[in-house]
Specification:
This protein is α/β, with parallel strands linked by helices and about 350 residues long. It contains ten helices and nine strands. The strands form two sheets. A seven-stranded mixed sheet has the order 5-2-1-6-7-8-9, sandwiched between helices.
Length: about 350
């Protein structure tokens, strides 16, 4: 049994140890401990100042590199897409700064942007599948060539969109065909429009740039968000647009933001069949990626398939190519005689018919 003397000895031991510690800290060990702590603080302060200096120098170097790429962009791009007509399709809410930067680089390359299109949620929303099934019946009669018999709903809609954007009238190459105009009208109107058009589309495109919605990278230690039915549906629908853009135009390129989980470039590169047919550019939020877009599109039109960026399975820049001049000579339908080919009746986009 513990008695009072045990408690008394324990208390005396505690106070004695405390007194010895105070005495040593205030006496012979005072200078040693103080000097040690002061030295450690000084060392940490010096290391912090050195790291700050290195960070400032690195930031300056990166700013200089960005400025150089930006300034050299016009020289790199001059004539790369001379007289090519390009439709820009955003697969959703792409940041305005990125869209504007891509437009500027296309202009520097000599291309003419004929359309700015953005897909709405109705394009892939699982709850609107019945609506899309009804809508596709309206557009199929305007398509030539028609989708394959085994084409999925996503593939049918994607082919309709691309034909609407690229449907130049052979007899009047500066105008859309009536069928193409009808397709775009059907897709952009109604209670649940499938697309939005920044401006009326009046001219058919030669090639297509597809802008993916950049995915925000997950924070360190944060669990990845589980894939939902809507996510899977949107990925399937977006891949269908990519394939249709390549198959029904001179060439196309997918432009995406940072690589990472959910990146559409990652989806393409993970599929050998897609990677062998589709050209991609990542890092579109950076000036390097933006300058690469016209070069990648020119390379794809010439027949070169590449994946450009600074991630795995990518190269920084495509090889330079020279595209042949565009031939827009009107083609006369023999059944319509040999009169003035530009007199063929056409219906501009947005007028119906």
């Amino acid at each position: 049994m513990i008695d009072f003397r045990y408690h008394l000895v324990s208390l005396i031991s505690v106070f004695l140890a405390l007194a010895v510690g105070i005495a040593l800290g205030a006496g012979p060990l005072k200078e040693t401990i103080g000097d040690t702590l002061t030295g450690q603080v000084d060392q940490l302060r010096t290391e912090k100042d050195e790291l700050r200096t290195q960070l400032d120098e690195t930031s300056g170097d990166l700013a200089d590199a960005r400025a150089f790429v930006d300034a050299s962009g016009s020289a790199l791009l001059d004539g790369a897409l001379e007289e090519r007509r390009v439709a820009v399709v955003a697969l959703g809410d792409v940041p305005e700064a990125e869209r504007t930067a891509v437009d500027d680089r296309l202009a520097q390359s000599g291309a003419e942007v004929t359309a700015h299109v953005a897909l709405t949620d109705a394009w892939f929303d699982p709850d609107l599948r019945s609506y899309r099934n009804a809508l596709v019946g309206l557009v199929l009669e305007n398509l030539d060539p028609a989708p394959a018999d085994d084409a999925t709903l996503d593939e049918q809609l994607a082919q309709a969109l691309v034909q609407g954007l690229t449907g130049a009238d052979p007899a009047s190459p500066d105008a859309l065909t009536a069928d193409a105009a009808n397709v775009l009208a059907i897709l952009s109107e109604g209670d649940n429009p499938m697309i939005t058009l920044a401006d009326p589309v009046t001219t058919g495109a030669d090639a297509v740039v597809v802008l993916a919605v950049p995915v925000e990278p997950a924070s360190a230690g944060t669990a990845a968000t589980p894939t939902t039915e809507a996510d899977a549906a949107s990925t399937d629908a977006h891949v269908a647009v990519l394939r249709a853009a390549q198959e029904q135009s001179e060439g196309s390129v997918l432009v995406d933001g940072p690589r990472g989980a959910g990146s559409l470039v990652d989806v393409v590169l993970a599929d050998e069949a897609l990677a062998s047919r589709l050209a991609t550019v990542s890092g579109a939020e950076l000036v390097t990626g933006q300058v690469t877009v016209p070069l990648a599109l020119a390379a794809r039109i010439s027949g070169t398939i590449g994946h450009y960026g600074f991630g795995d399975d990518e190269t920084p820049l495509p090889a330079a190519v020279t595209l042949p001049p565009v031939d827009r000579t009107p083609v006369v339908d023999p059944e319509q005689g040999t009169g003035d080919p530009t007199s063929a009746a056409t219906t501009p986009a947005g007028t119906g018919g």
